[in-house]
Amino acid sequence: MNAGYNFAYLDEQTKRMIRRAILKGVAIPGHQVPFGSREMPLPYGWGTGGIQVTASVLGPDDVLKVIDQGADDTTNAVSIRRFFGRTAGVRTTTRTQEATIIQTRHRIPEAKLREDQIIVYQVPQPEPMVRLEPSRAETKRMHALAEYGLMHVKLYEDITRYGHFATSYDYPVMVNGRYLMAPSPIPAFDNPKLHRMPALQLFGAGREKRIYAVPPYTDVRSLDFEDHAFQPRRAPHACALCGSRSSYLDEVVTDDRGTRMFVCSDTDYCAERVAEGQKEAAE
Amino acid sequence: MTVSPHLPLPSGEGRGEGGHALTQPSPEGRGLAPPLPPDTLLSARGLSLRFGPITALDAVDADLWPGEVLAIVGESGSGKTTLLNVLSGRLRPDAGTVSYRDPAGDLHDLHQMPAPALRALHRSDWGFVHQNPRDSLRMRVSAGGNVGERLMAAGSRHYGSIRAAAIDWLQQVEIEPSRIDDMPSTFSGGMLQRLQIARTLVTHPRLVFMDEPTGGLDVSVQARLLDLIRTLVARLGIAVVLVTHDIAAARLLAGRIMVMQGGRVVEQGLTDQVLDDPQHPYTQLLVSSVLQA
Questions:
Q1: For A6-54, what is each residue's pLDDT tens digit?
Q2: Does A229 touch chain B if contact means CB atoms closer than 8 Å?
Q3: Cα B189 to Cα B10, B43, B218, distances in angstroms
Q4: What whole-number distance in Å separates Cα of residue A54 and Cα of residue A68?
Q5: Nearest Cα residue to A46 out of A11, A27, A74
Q6: Which of A10, A74, A151, B135 is most buried as measured by Cβ atoms within 10 A of its Cβ?
Q7: Which residues of B touch A (CB under 8 A)?
Q8: What is the spatial distance between Cα B185 and Cα B48, in angstroms, rounded to a whole number?
Q9: Rounded CA separation B168/B177 (Å)
Q10: CA dist B255 to A148, A163, B265, Å?
């Protein structure tokens, strides 16, 4: 652990400020709470919001897991894990089951999360209606009055142009029947996992200076039409490594002649299944 | 017909036919606003608004009955668009009230209404047609999505029925139903304006505010649009407040007319009466300056 830094990098007053924003977010599920986002030693877009939220909820006994696009071994995951290893000295892990805090970019783990876990999402754009209504003042008013018809215009356009909901990530959800929320760029496939999740879900957007939260066991519904139900989509293949037919798959191009393979995006889930398979084969 | 603008004339009083209060307000009559008639849709009393040294509205009274078209005419800067914005609750006056009667018959003071209620009114019971359709249309959303937006805002969540309503309304405004999935940017100026009208009328509003709906269109397109507006308004029984500088459009569409100059209503009455026999020198000037083709 590096000397000269406060525990988990941020000073205590900043952490208190962020905790207050988190508490407010938990009290109003799905509502975006402004907070004084700090400069972090990594660029915007790399998870400055998530890292500040994690720093504020992290304790010395916590076990941290960091996911980037489902993987534990990509640049973003490795550097954030190492950052907290050095500034907080906490134990880190790649195992979903062992972690108490999971910071994630673009995925929710395949394994079911528990009540004693917190999942922290890195959010680039907290405002779900930003592409439809550019004015912040106006979207704030729309949230306040729960005027969300505009979001359905977007869904209407999807069906009209593509015949189905073409929004494949950051698919808008209604939280607790009240607030429209951007679930961060997780695939729409992961949206059902948000619904009544036992773990506390925190969302941090560093550049946009917003924090929001979904408390455990809160209703989270994906928007849809009565005659066009929301359908989580995944590539119609089995994982090339573990053979899973239910996990979310990444398409990996393996040469320059168009050969490709589909593998689980959740590397921990995949590795666990491969290990189990080998154990069974050995027995 | 030659008219001297300096002709000494009584100021349009005594045009009381038709049962409507047509007396024009006098400056000293501010405290003695006429009582609200019992059956109006929208009533304004003593509206005044100043922008710094400029008087935009000076003690303006107005009444609108259900299903009638009221034209507000005047030259640029006469306060007609300001009046439209105040009547529709988009702009708060310095003095005066605007009362709106909801379908249940209850009166609401527009500028005392809570913001959510006023926004709900604008989304459903009212409509606003802008001079430039690009101000109101979503240019990156297909024609069908534009027409369906108000339905979705009102809570409609059935794709099929939204689409059916959009097709129906495109036909009503004489746009080919096959263009439903096209972007508004591929539409001509006249089509855009008709699309805006479809988008506004889809929720069957009782009251529509129109700000120069034919402005910026060429003459043949204007004629077709005016004809369309007249047909739709008559069939659906919509009340319209129409702001225009085009006397011909006012004559074609409006049952009653208000002539504004310098923020004041200088003359009002039945359209044909006012335009055929203008009493106020300014109205006489306005009527005489219409070009005859």
A1: 999 999 999 999 999 999 999 999 999 999 999 999 999 899 999 999 9
A2: no
A3: 43, 34, 9
A4: 15
A5: A74
A6: A10
A7: 115-116, 119, 123, 138, 141-142, 144-145, 148-150, 152-155, 157-160, 162-163, 181
A8: 39
A9: 8
A10: 38, 47, 17
Q: Is the pTM higher than 0.90?
A: no
Q: Could you tell me the two tokens for A102?
A: 């999971």
Among residues A37, A90, A40, A38, the alpha carbon closest in space to that of A65 is found at: A90
**CA distance linking residue A22 with residue A202, whole number of Å:** 7
User: Who's near A207: CB < 8 A, 6+ residues apart?
Assistant: A37, A44, A45, A48, A49, A124
- Residues sharing a CB contact under 8 Å with residue A203, sequence separation 6 or more, in sequence order: A25, A49, A53, A120, A121, A123, A126, A184, A211, A212, A213, A214
Single-letter code of the amino acid located at A116: D
What's the gap in Å between the CA of B114 and the closest CA on chain A? 11
Q: Give the residue from B286, B280, B218 showing the smallest Cα distance to B251.
A: B286
Rg (CA), chain B: 19
The ipTM estimated for the assembled molecules is: 0.80
Strand partners, A9: A6
